[in-house]
Amino acid sequence: MNALGADIVSLILQTLKPGGAGDAFDAFVITNDAQNFSVGANLMLLLMSVQEEEWDDVDLAIRQFQGMTQAIKFSPKPVVIAPFGLALGGGCEVALHAAARQPHAELYNGTGRGRRRPSSPEAVAAKRCCSAPWTAQLPSAPAGEANRLN
């Protein structure tokens, strides 16, 4: 299902941090070639940590994920997300923080927030953003530039 684990979070954090591996690039595109973009956090890993009462591990996982979304949002270089299939929970949050999105025609995304509890202004905004079709398009290259690249 393509869950977000510590390895993906660490990869994105290391790439986007100042002085990191991403300094050699002009922009970043986050996508993959699996059946789904991401179904969110690795809940099995979190469940195991909760059952073993490893609260520090749970707190660390949450803080690292939030740090990753903030790194995407405040990156000095543009981060483009190309979601497809399912983009649920944390996968939708990752997409929401990007500078631009290039969604696939068949995209099912959402956080599931705002239905089971009273809606805060943030939850209403997230629900509205996740339920509306994304139409953000990347600027296209001038015709002469496109021919030069071919």
Structure description:
- The structure is a single chain.
- With 150 residues, the chain is mainly alpha-helical.
- It has a single domain, classed as 2-enoyl-CoA Hydratase, Chain A, domain 1.
- The protein is built from six helices and five strands; from the N terminus they run αβααββαββαα.
- It has a three-stranded parallel beta sheet, covered by helices on one side. A two-stranded parallel ribbon has the order 3-5.
- Helix 1 runs parallel beside helix 3.
- The longest helix has 19 residues.
- It is globular, with a radius of gyration of 17 Å.
Strand content: 5-15%
Strand order in space, largest sheet:
1-2-4
- Cα-based radius of gyration, to the nearest Å: 17 Å
Order of helices and strands: HEHHEEHEEHH
Mean pLDDT: 80
CATH topology grouping = 2-enoyl-CoA Hydratase, Chain A, domain 1
- Give the CATH class: Alpha Beta
Q: Topology of this protein?
A:
Elements: H1 6-16, E1 28-30, H2 43-51, H3 55-73, E2 79-81, E3 85-88, H4 90-97, E4 100-101, E5 107-110, H5 121-131, H6 143-149
Parallel strand pairs: 1-2, 2-4, 3-5
